[in-house]
Amino acid sequence: MSQPPKKISRVVLAYSGGLDTSIILKWLQTTYGCEVVTFTADLGQGEELEPARQKALLLGIKPENIYIEDLRDEFVRDYVFPMFRANAQYEGLYLLGTSIARPLIAKKQIEIARAVGADAVCHGATGKGNDQVRFELSYYALEPDIQVIAPWREWNLTSRTALLEFAEQNQIPIAKDKRGEAPFSVDANLLHVSSEGKVLEDPAEEVPDYVFSRTVSPEQAPDRATIIEVGFERGDAVSIDGEALGPAALLTRLNELGRVNGIGRLDLVENRFVGMKSRGMYETPGGTILYFAHRGIEQLTLDRGAAHLKDELMPRYAELIYNGFWFSPERELLQGLIDRSQEFVTGTVRVKLYKGSASVVGRASPYSLYDQDLVTFEEGAVAYDHRDAAGFIKLNALRLRTLAKRNRRGA
Amino acid sequence: MSQPPKKISRVVLAYSGGLDTSIILKWLQTTYGCEVVTFTADLGQGEELEPARQKALLLGIKPENIYIEDLRDEFVRDYVFPMFRANAQYEGLYLLGTSIARPLIAKKQIEIARAVGADAVCHGATGKGNDQVRFELSYYALEPDIQVIAPWREWNLTSRTALLEFAEQNQIPIAKDKRGEAPFSVDANLLHVSSEGKVLEDPAEEVPDYVFSRTVSPEQAPDRATIIEVGFERGDAVSIDGEALGPAALLTRLNELGRVNGIGRLDLVENRFVGMKSRGMYETPGGTILYFAHRGIEQLTLDRGAAHLKDELMPRYAELIYNGFWFSPERELLQGLIDRSQEFVTGTVRVKLYKGSASVVGRASPYSLYDQDLVTFEEGAVAYDHRDAAGFIKLNALRLRTLAKRNRRGA
Amino acid sequence: MSQPPKKISRVVLAYSGGLDTSIILKWLQTTYGCEVVTFTADLGQGEELEPARQKALLLGIKPENIYIEDLRDEFVRDYVFPMFRANAQYEGLYLLGTSIARPLIAKKQIEIARAVGADAVCHGATGKGNDQVRFELSYYALEPDIQVIAPWREWNLTSRTALLEFAEQNQIPIAKDKRGEAPFSVDANLLHVSSEGKVLEDPAEEVPDYVFSRTVSPEQAPDRATIIEVGFERGDAVSIDGEALGPAALLTRLNELGRVNGIGRLDLVENRFVGMKSRGMYETPGGTILYFAHRGIEQLTLDRGAAHLKDELMPRYAELIYNGFWFSPERELLQGLIDRSQEFVTGTVRVKLYKGSASVVGRASPYSLYDQDLVTFEEGAVAYDHRDAAGFIKLNALRLRTLAKRNRRGA
Amino acid sequence: MSQPPKKISRVVLAYSGGLDTSIILKWLQTTYGCEVVTFTADLGQGEELEPARQKALLLGIKPENIYIEDLRDEFVRDYVFPMFRANAQYEGLYLLGTSIARPLIAKKQIEIARAVGADAVCHGATGKGNDQVRFELSYYALEPDIQVIAPWREWNLTSRTALLEFAEQNQIPIAKDKRGEAPFSVDANLLHVSSEGKVLEDPAEEVPDYVFSRTVSPEQAPDRATIIEVGFERGDAVSIDGEALGPAALLTRLNELGRVNGIGRLDLVENRFVGMKSRGMYETPGGTILYFAHRGIEQLTLDRGAAHLKDELMPRYAELIYNGFWFSPERELLQGLIDRSQEFVTGTVRVKLYKGSASVVGRASPYSLYDQDLVTFEEGAVAYDHRDAAGFIKLNALRLRTLAKRNRRGA
């Protein structure tokens, strides 16, 4: 380790209950000799939280130092939905399922650190990934003098063997299936599951079937399409087929609909903020449906000026989230703009789900800007005079005509 | 008509051979008393061109005034492919199939006008749509003093009945199925078919099956996926499954693959340049496959800086094409940037086609920027030191920490 | 006139009291046979308003149909200041003095139209300029079904002689100095004076001295510099040299300071929205000082992320105002973002005024983000470790190194 | 030092001949035991280069290992001029004088490293500044496996005393005036002089007079204005008052003109890439004149579409240069776009220089896009019909009207 260990008295660890964060837990105790406070969150990753409590107790954490929280509604309401208002896609395709969860976990760790008087926080993200950046930028933005421990960058447990030895030496139980190395690594929350590494590392090779955990393959999906109606209010989905649902319940429902219809798989080679390309497989069943549905309702209710401004700003907004700048002034300023644009993004969208595709097939809104009279081929009583188009074109063409004449002169 | 007819001696008409442009042909002769030169292009719309010649002759056009040209290769090579290098999507979804054909037709009309000494050009686009703008901006940009005739904005044949009466009075043959009004209007070329109007005008109503002409429904597509390999050179597709193909042949092949697999349908409400929203159904089978395949090969071969710059500029580039500014300095400047970015966008992409979806499942390139050594979880011999990430994060966080302290002070 | 006159019963005219709008007043009465309501605003153009009332009465306007309003504070507070929060400059140089006044006048006309039950509004802007667009887009955005009368596009008084004849026929008094044609045309308000046309039309020729009305020449300015301190709160100037001043009073004071020091002249060739280039001379004495002072306080108090986002959005924001889209969703969304960024833009800036230049020479803020400890050459106790820079650079370089290796391979 | 010294056999040092880089030279020899190759460039910093050769010899560098080069023309032609084509200003004001010199020095070091078979390069930039980033990103982009030595981040000579002791121990001559600490630090090249640190560190305090070295104060400048004519070809200045001048000679002439007229001082608080704010005083006499002159000729010759695109991209382009990404694909792509836009940016601009101001007072071009006929108030024979404006406005207003009606409904 390049620097002497910082002096730490109490640290809040983002703790999953799994082998890796259990090793970190012990390593914190032995390396820093500090009190460890564990934080385990339910973000919809699909795992029980109680085993994490038991394991923390087993590893010597005091009951009052074990924090477990169900964050699913907060996650969807305050992170996923705001992001979907922007139609955010990183590099044109990725719905940012991993990126969007990090700031919330970091925020909770900081809140707990304040509550328990901890002077440090710790996460289990590796030294080559984006997640370390996302965690730590969030920590620092919220609590500028917090100390940050990133074991994967600090320790010398740099091989699987070393990790397992450390676990054994410290009486950390190792599940049988964790002895061997996992064929790929996984991150999951209510928005998505991501898989990367090992068997996925060759971007030329198709992703093996056993990697998928949240969607059936399109081939296995039903032979009949499912049509659903998603209701929106001010840019957020609020109902499915007329049934009002809270944020997490709604996304859970969409996930189930997406799962059975094989929707939301994405095989991506992406550019990490830390500088290299990586390949991953994302499954975002509900999010994919939500993305198209939201575009559908915006088509009807958003003015062109607002819509195009949003589209132009989106890549930068998505990049900010991907790079870990959720808690930055520029993300917050863009969010304010995006949120304000959604005032009338209210209505319903019908989406057809079929063997891997989510397609908008109809949309309606009390605040529709679509005007059948304006668009109809017959000239009606409306305030559209065909002859106006002539002047419109003439003035738009004026500079091009001047230019054409000049360029000839110049040739 | 608000203005006295311009004095026209010879006009080049974009002539399809259909009823509407035949009426225009006659109307030009009777209104302007001028010589009409017809131009009929094969852009892959899927219609025979010889009937157009016969019809023109029948309507009194001299043989030497009938121009018929197969533009399919030029269309794909010089218009479609450059646009796909940009991953252009208007309003996040539309692959610009109609927009991209207009500048080419306009350019050819201008070339013919110069060759035959015509002082005017004429198109059959209506007064409420984007196409009139696209045609006319192109005309003016290429030939600033050309006169433009836009019959739909000028004449008083403002009802179907009036049109048919005019046709009958002028001995224009009317096919039986053209007596009644078409239930929707269609534009087609090698890139796509668009349908809009009438039965499509209510954006809440699903598009009826009989509207589709270029794709089978996903439900009717084969139960087994088709996997193809698309080869790219410098950003353009050049082969399918190892077989080198010219631009038009390649897009034709992709169209067929897309057609049978039900790929490329898009139900869209979009914002027209002339100010209103309209609803259309686009079928872009080959283009949809091409879009995803191109993104796939760029993922591997394009640097992040170039890729993100392209993504940020794309909405504006797409808007320029949609609005008819193909022949504008800003489109050309952006095109130069995009083209230059494609120098190493060479390699192969495997795409899975299945019941409406085109999914990249693998990509390879001799110019790959993906480096397995950099991304692997194990720290190897490569030039990536985990500890570098600490400094990277620290300096990225510095301003956020300063800000957090200031904001507290300010609170 | 190309179209039959619309049926108008009552029209609200933007009336200056000058010859041209008096002619318009009469022309409205005679052409439309409608009741004319005049609106005369004090936007700081430097003219008495009472003569306008007298003239309106003389021309037969009923007293209750004469509206005169002092809008100076509203103009500066709700239009000028919000725009300066964005550091808006059109085409890199122009502080938008004319553009920003139009939406306010239009808004007041619409309010009066509603109050008096008028069905139309009328402005005196010519058919080749931007102002017609700015007025009319504002009218339509605020009152979509209002009728708009633009006499300069409608009447046939297309020469100076025709105008004077019409004036004489209608007993409109003509000041002696208005007989001949003015050597240039002028627009003025509290933010600026613009001059264009005639003697200014050759962009190669220097602007003659007699054109300037709001600034002395730098050569005539005092030989000693004046240093002032401008106080800001949340992005708006609120005091000069410690004296709190309301918006209009503050800008008036800055104008006087700028005037005597020869500050704020701009000789510009600009691109009009209607498609041609034009040349103008702008005098914006107070605004120029304000621009630099605002940049000065932002330098100290705005985070880099927010500052760069603002700078990137500024050209589009400025273009929107120039083009007349003040009352558009996209301008309003951008404004919301800009306003929110100004929360801590509070403090004082010292500006040196000297013979044409306004230079920031010092700035201070209770919310400064400048940290002397961070920037000092000596490494101190602060949270900046020189070695962090190594990692920062390494990861920023990673993609460039990968790229360099690939490009060699490709060469 | 955190890491063991790399094994270096030969290093190319950017060597000024001054005390600091002489200390670095010795430190390299003693720390790495490697052969040092010195590179001293004339970038117009205004110092003799021969003393640097003598000093290098004195410090034991072999004659064949001493590289001295006059880069002034290359600097202006290939770095300064391309940047000025973009009208680049970082954070709205800074003409990037320091930033633009770094990539050229780095490039030459790499070329020499290749020529002499060196495995490392070394610069004298400190660990808190931007220059280290600019040097190193350039090194890595050009030679991805080069080793980089940054003494200021590595050694423990962290105080002035320690440095002087090291110098004495190593027989490095110390000029008398270097014993005490400089009251500020300076960087100079043909484009500018920057001063920062110490006496400049309080951003509220005015910069003392003795800091300025390249400009007289405006107060001391002549009482009569100087008017010059700058000739441009394809975006680059090529002559002054009709005299053709090479790049460096031209900038030298402009610097002298700027110097005597007190032009180009900028007191700035800026945001460094490494995360903190710093305050500096820049003197860019010739560059300031060039900036305004270039804007002047573009006003006349650049189409609006190209001009606005350039203006929108400029902040990002300037940021790339400031941050050190000169040799990055995104800078190069933007440069290609910018360069292409300059095809017709040819003509002459007259600039008035007076006591601190550079003001364009006239411009002319054989490729002017300014058309007096179009802009004149009288409607002439030109292709501008006032009535076209009505249609132009109507269609631009259409969406705003639709929106206004909807929003009422929504209220």
From TrEMBL, chains A, B, C, D:
One of its GO terms (biological process) is argininosuccinate metabolic process. L-citrulline binds at residues 94, 99, 130, 134, 185, 194, 270, 282. Residues 10-173 form the Arginosuccinate synthase-like N-terminal domain. Residues 184-401 form the Arginosuccinate synthase C-terminal domain. It comes from the Bacteria. It is an enzyme of class 6 (ligase). It is found in: Cytoplasm. Transmembrane segments: none annotated. The keyword DNA-binding does not apply. ATP binds at residues 14-22, 41, 124. GO terms for cellular component: cytoplasm. The keyword Amino-acid biosynthesis applies. Pfam families: Arginosuc_syn_C, Arginosuc_synth. PANTHER family: ARGININOSUCCINATE SYNTHASE (PTHR11587:SF2). Homotetramer. This is Argininosuccinate synthase. It comes from Lichenibacterium ramalinae.
